[in-house]
Write a structure and sequence with these properties.
Blueprint: E1 2-6, E2 13-17, E3 23-25, H1 40-47, E4 73-77, H2 81-86, E5 96-99, E6 105-106, E7 121-122, E8 125-131, E9 147-154, E10 157-158, H3 159-164, H4 170-173, E11 179-180, E12 185-187, E13 198-203, E14 206-212, H5 220-228, E15 238-240, E16 262-267, E17 271-276
Parallel strand pairs: 4-15, 6-11
Antiparallel strand pairs: 1-2, 1-12, 2-3, 4-5, 7-10, 8-9, 8-15, 9-12, 13-14, 13-16, 16-17
Length: 278
């Protein structure tokens, strides 16, 4: 299933893309895609519905963030060996964990806004997984049963705020518009091998990032298991799992986003995002 939220900002409704690529309104089944509905019971409910009976949504409608009001928005740092190398940093022995403020979340085609006093706003194409049921002290072999689905995250990062302003990375990861997610949430059974997906990001039509999820230091099932030993993960929690090489901060000389830039990112089977920088 490809689940999404469609409509004007703060007035989105839940939707699904049918086998013919038509967006259908899910409002009669669930009221939104949020922690209350992002469960396996919802998937089973939708499977029983004849999608052709659902109302069509106009194809030119705005697509919002594919999840609203998640309890947690967690990132994993330096999780690609080739990205760690470009940052001249050692490969971590355990996952590096940081948080992004949930207020940073926007839709997959919304504008990115450079924060006041920012000089080093950067890009990161990432795959995220979304939790589908409560997970606590879960083994790696069990982990897949707890993943509702996957989506793209652009982990926008202000490097000066992140690295030079003291404290934790959350400062550089949480500005408004720094968390685009979507365009849709793809349920896990539709992804045959999540550790073999190609990832791309272009800025102004120039290819900046190329990667594959197979280059992760810690795979997705391991990350879920690892996190569940430190905190209880709940339905709707978003965990974004790191970026491949090619970030602006790693270029020689460094390159950062500026007003007027256009950014496009894509991951196999998960669609693409397109943003203009304001």
């Amino acid at each position: 299933m490809k689940l999404l939220r469609v409509g004007n900002l703060n007035y989105e409704k839940p939707a699904i893309i049918d086998d013919n690529g038509i967006i259908r309104d899910l409002s009669i089944i669930i009221n939104d895609l949020n922690p209350q509905t992002l469960t396996f019971d919802t998937i089973n409910k939708i499977k029983k519905i004849d999608l052709s009976s659902l109302q069509k949504i106009p194809p030119n409608s705005r697509v919002g963030a594919c999840i609203t009001n998640p309890g947690k928005f967690i990132g994993i740092g330096l999780n690609f060996s080739d990205h760690a190398a470009e940052q001249n940093l050692p490969i971590p022995n355990e996952p590096i964990i940081f948080s992004k403020a949930t207020s940073s979340i926007i839709g997959p085609y919304d504008d990115i806004k450079i924060p006041k006093n920012s000089k080093k706003t950067d890009w990161e194409v990432e795959i995220a997984f979304v939790v589908g049921k409560e997970a606590k002290n879960i083994s790696e072999t069990e982990a897949k049963k707890y993943i509702f689905g996957y989506c793209i995250v652009d982990d926008i990062s202000e490097r000066e705020f992140q690295k030079n302003r003291g404290g934790q990375w959350i400062k550089g990861k949480s500005a408004d518009t720094f968390g685009p997610i979507g365009p849709y949430l793809v349920t896990s059974e539709e992804i045959p091998d999540v550790q073999n997906l190609n990832m791309f990001l272009d800025v102004n039509d120039k290819r900046m990032q190329v990667g594959n999820t197979g280059k992760m230091i810690f795979n997705i099932n391991y990350i879920l298991s690892y996190l569940s030993n430190f905190m209880t993960l709940l339905p709707g929690d978003i965990i974004t799992t790191g970026t491949p090489p090619g970030v602006g901060d790693g270029k020689k000389p460094p390159v950062y986003l500026k007003k007027g830039d256009k950014m496009r990112l894509e991951i196999d089977l998960l669609g693409y995002q397109l943003h203009h920088v304001k």
